[in-house]
Specification:
Arc Repressor Mutant, subunit A; 304 residues; alpha+beta; 10 helices; six-stranded mixed β-sheet; 24% strand; seven-stranded mixed β-sheet; globular
Length: 304
């Protein structure tokens, strides 16, 4: 990986150069990270880059529990034993228990070997030292720096965004940059209603700059958020169109979605797609557009 450098967003708010836009807020000689990268190698590069710039990492705020956001926690916690790590309660469990995410994709049973990798869960656990109260916007103090926590559920239940004193919002995965949006048609969501509400919320905030973990810095999210909303609504319509032809099991519907969008045939892609399909079905059931029922030993989705 090339040398990591700091890219200025505004004031003391930065992102790290590289594939992932890890957030950095500097205060004196301290660096407060918003997410920590995907693994030890990434974390080490970030740490070295910050040290060369004269900063020491004193805290990490995790926007959510996915391994590309918290996979570097363990490295920083080992290197800096006094470091503070912040996350919401829902996300804490997955950050601290690396077996939990693979089990979730297997109905809490022993996970398949194809799910035991850094794309599903961090490879090393870390301890969340400061649990953020769930489901409410609030102010948290990290040392003597005040950050605003914005709840942005949908991608995961406890997802948050972080607004720095410079009025820069680090969005986590509540919204994706143009390149990621174009590359991955079936974006990962666990709750469709919350996703739409969070996207709308992002457009209503008075923010000077947005830092997207997958996409870098943008000044205005209106167009991008509307693209995301349009994608969600289009996916709902696609699922309904499939079900208008015939009732389908979740496996059959997952297969059709993967084939329709040329999603790679591997275990990780399958479970991520199927989880997202389940989220869409739950929303469509809530809207009374479909019914779910068990027939001949299969859970089938049908048009209501």
């Amino acid at each position: 990986m090339p040398k990591v450098t700091l890219i200025s967003v505004k004031g003391n708010s930065y992102i790290c150069s590289g594939f992932l836009s890890i957030g950095v807020y500097v205060h004196g000689t301290s660096a407060i990270l918003i997410d920590s990268g995907g693994d030890e190698s990434c974390a080490k590069d970030v740490s070295n880059g910050l040290e060369q710039a004269g900063y020491v990492v004193t805290a990490i705020i995790n926007t959510h529990c996915h391994p590309d956001h918290c996979g570097g926690n363990a490295y920083f916690q080992k290197k800096y034993p006094d470091i503070r790590i912040y996350a919401t309660h829902d996300e804490q469990r997955f950050i601290e228990d690396t077996d939990l995410a693979p089990r979730c994709f297997c109905g809490q049973a022993q996970p398949f070997s194809g799910l035991l990798n850094k794309y599903i869960a961090p490879q090393k656990s870390s301890t969340v030292t400061n649990v953020i109260a769930p489901y409410q916007d609030q102010i948290i103090m990290v040392g003597d720096v005040s950050f605003k926590v914005i709840t942005l559920p949908g991608h995961t239940p406890g997802s948050i965004g972080i607004i720095t004193p410079d009025n820069v919002l680090y969005t986590g995965d509540a919204i994706f940059g143009e390149q990621t949006f174009a590359k991955h048609y079936m974006l990962f969501y666990t709750h469709i209603g919350n996703t739409l509400a969070s996207l709308k919320k992002l457009t209503e905030l008075k923010i000077d700059a947005f830092a997207l973990y997958h996409g870098g810095v943008v000044e205005n999210l209106e167009s991008l958020a509307q693209q995301h909303i349009g994608r969600v609504l289009e996916t709902k319509n696609t699922i309904v169109a499939f079900l208008q032809k015939q009732s389908l099991s979740i496996d059959q519907l997952t297969q059709k979605i993967m084939q329709f969008h040329n999603i790679p045939n591997n275990m990780v892609s399958f479970v991520l797609t199927q989880t997202t399909v389940r989220a869409y079905l739950a929303q469509l059931e809530l809207e009374k557009a479909i019914v779910l029922g068990v027939q001949d030993g299969m859970l089938l989705a049908s048009i209501s």
